[in-house]
Amino acid sequence: MKKQSSLDHKIYWGFLFLMTAALSLVYYEGELCSKMWWILAYDVLLLILSAVCIHYGKGSVRKEVRYLIGFFFLFIVPSFSAGPLFEQVTESEKSAMGMGKHLLELAVFALLMLPYLQIAVSFGKGLYQQEKVSEASPQKTVLPLFLPLLLLPGILFSSHYGIWVSIMVFCYGCIIVYGTSFAGESWQITMKEMLQNIRAKGPVSVLLLIYPVLFLPFRSSYISDFSRELTEWLWGLF
Amino acid sequence: MDRRNGRNIMNDRTTINENKRKEVCRFLFLLALFAAACAFRYFDHAINPQDTTAFAFSYRYGFISRGLMGTLLELFDGLIPGNQMTYDTIYLWSGVATLFFFVCLFVFYYVVLMKRDGIWQTRQQYLVILLSVFAFPMFVTEENFGRLDVYLTILMLLCMILLVVQKAEWLVLPLCCVGVLIHQGFVFMNVNIVLVLLFYRLLTQEGAKKRYYLILFVLTAAAVSGLFLYFEFFSHVNGPEIYDEVVANAKALAMDGKTYSTALVNHEILGEGVFMDEWFFHKINYQELPQFLVFFAPYIYIGVRYGRSYWKKAKNAKEKWIAAAVLLGAWTVLPEFILKVDYGRYMYEIVFYYIAMVLCLMAMGDRYTEETTEEMSTAIGKHMPAALFLIVYPMIMMPFLDVVISQLNVVLCRLFLGVS
Description:
The structure holds 2 protein chains of 2 kinds. By secondary structure, chain A is mostly helical. Chain A has one domain. Chain A has helices at residues 2-27, 34-56, 62-81, 91-112, 114-133, 138-146, 152-157, 161-182, 185-200, 204-210, 225-237. Chain B is an all-alpha fold. Chain B has helices at 2-42, 49-53, 68-79, 87-114, 118-135, 149-165, 172-182, 185-189, 191-204, 207-233, 239-253, 262-270, 279-295, 297-313, 317-328, 334-339, 343-363, 367-383, 389-392, 407-417.
């Protein structure tokens, strides 16, 4: 049994390394230069944080944490590798998009992310109810889920929409993975229930894993190529 | 009383079938949304000059290779007022063909899913999603949008559907001939799956049905081989006389009115070998293939294990023949790997072959495919803690392109080999 578990462990890490390398390389758009070292450092940091959560977190949710890490890596590795943080948004880019288009893109992006938003809301609701049942302080437990929303003004009033969105996703990734690994029991119960509900949907749940790849990577001035394409199309239509 | 019971059983079956149909349709509807998102995400709104050039070949110049689509375009031009021999018409045709490809793919999915129930249907659904990851973005990128491959894939899918549902299977013969008339590559890349399914039917049936499949198999193999040999070696006799006119037509069909594929015209019209002309691309291929294989290693490992297990299950000579055909069928594409440069297309065909073949054999009730799939899914579930990511992982390599296999290779070649 122990041998089997250690085999799983090795395969998981092998897979995560391979996936991180592939994601970083596929989405890397710069030339071979010092930026590569930044990306490497970022990836190593992410892997270390993941290792901490998997090894020192609660053993009962290890499987769930592995899935969550894999899922959030899909979002956060490419977005950094594509290098939007290194990009300078030119004046022409700013004027090309304009506030109206930016807001439309934000709405389009929210619409595209609807399946995940719905899951996130039901997770928050489940967590709140779980805490209420155990007569703890539900507000305190659910509060971290609202913290990344403090970035919303940044998204609305900056010209770097994509960067702010990727930071927000990064924050949510950290909070959810960390919360599931280390926070109170209600987090673990809610997360298990949520993943069970998703798994119960059968093969359709795989689409939830594949779908984010279409958005990636997050960009600098606009959010993603996909949402911009749709925004331009809608803008032209109306 | 008996009659009433019989009626009740019939009603129950109808309800079960109706429920199954609804479930399959719901799954396909969600998949269709994903297909639409993929198409929107990867669509480049352009056709390569390589692909517009193919429409300049026509049977007006004799029975030449790849002349069917150009001839159809000329017929269309004759029927519709105004000049239809333009880039815009080809663009429109390509759009319609790509849409039809999606329709055929979904009909194929529907057919194979409706053949099975319960856990087998669930396993098929996973395979359908995996196949979709490769298939959805394939024909919408600039490299492959409007390429003749989309027509070949449509024909292949139609043949597969007919063979799975066992209706009007004789149509396989004309459909395959049309495929070779469109592009000789059909023989290497697409007809394999059709012939292997025919071969499977031939060896698993008895009596009159067996004779029927034998005749169909022999005729299809002979027809496509004959047409291929003719186009490769005997269709270039008028080449030098028609060369200038074909080039002028190809230029007129290009987006900018002047760019066309010299290599394609030289090969198809003059019959010249283009290996040395394409040496630059061959070099890219030789550099990118090992990189790609490393990143694709998990699937190669699973594929090899699956193949080994499937082969071991075959007990007698007949079963060994079936297993050999199923496992080796995809490698008819090998000559293309040696002589041509579009490794992205060939890789796609190999992946498509194996996943679609498993889906077809499961739908046709092949016991060994079921057993092997069950063993593999148990093994993967046991050894792979996040098995679902095996379906996600190829998505990041998508879309497969033409000379370059995937975006992954573009970056790796640029980084480590200095190829720009």
